[in-house]
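Entry
Fold in token form

___
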Amino acid sequence: MKLKRKRIALLVETSLGSGREILRGIAEFARNHDNWEIFHAARGLVDQVPDWLETWEGDGVIARIQSDNMLQSLKDLNVPVVDVLGVPPHNLPLIRVDDEQISQQIGQHFIDRDFRHFAFYGIEGESWSQRRGEAFRKVSESGESFAWINSLRGISEGDSAHFSKLKQWLLELPKPCAVMVCSDQCGLTLLEACRAAEIIVPEQLAVVGVDNDLALCEISTPNLSSVRGGHRRVGFEAANLLNKIINGEPTPSERILIPPNQIVVRESSDSRSISDPEVRNAIQFIREHLSEPITNEDVAKAVGLSRTRLQVRFRDEVGVSLHAFLAEMRLRRAERLIQSTNLTFADIAERCGFRHHEYLGYILKKARGITPRQLRMQAAPPSHS
């Protein structure tokens, strides 16, 4: 017997990585349920309800409900609706990421790296940003200071007045400082302000975003560390819940919170808190010249110290020798490129300062017990991430 097809509308943005991950989770559910017929068009997070929905005859909706107007339009449809954002208050079923756990994970990431000063960059008027900021403030209570600045959605990212204000705020933060940004798109703005203010990231200012939007994280300089928030699982669980409601099962009265996955550590936070300015400059020089055959003497000359004096201060501040740190930095960058790009191993070896790809393979096997090929094969993302 052929099952009646369920007509499902999706009002989920394609402009942000979080929305695209939610759509991937919904698609994963739909692949296993042949009777789902999906209606969706590319949209932004703050776009209005599309005109076609007014005359649409369907069975249910999954939406990122951004405003009261959107909420009322969806209620007027008189079909089951599952919200996957949680901005305006309502009594509809809600599944979203756990903002508090996201902030706790980022806070612990910084605490483990010995930071004592913390700051948050959020978006004014967004409840999810507010939740993340408050939770980050709480997890940072053991530190010596906490600062908070907000942008205004839609205008601040390209607004020169806000950019100047952000740059001044960054300059006034005690250093070294650990900064959480509420989402990856804000991370790009903050890192640009750091460059304009000549603030060294991550030694003076370590930065972590949220959503792990690869296009944004990998185009930023330095590459942005970010939490994989669990949005794909949000999409899968929202589709599963909507399917149950359409089938007549009771609607849950409690919101469902999805915990985050791990932090993807990139260059913007891949450092411990460094107080010694010459050691900070040495680390910055190493990051900027990893593809070159630099030596301890080159680093010492760049920061204006003798090799012996730099080696002593470096070990006192970082806990390992300058030589060991340089080798580890080369290896970490190679690992990131192996896992996140399709570059050949020869290209990666050249970009990371290894003599040839066979030597890279030897060092990786010796240090990590794995070959470059095995590491690349392990990099495929899991389901519901």
Observations:
- The longest helix spans residues 322-340.
- The chain has three domains: 6-97+231-260, 99-228, 277-378.
- The chain has a mean pLDDT of 90.
- The radius of gyration is 24 Å.
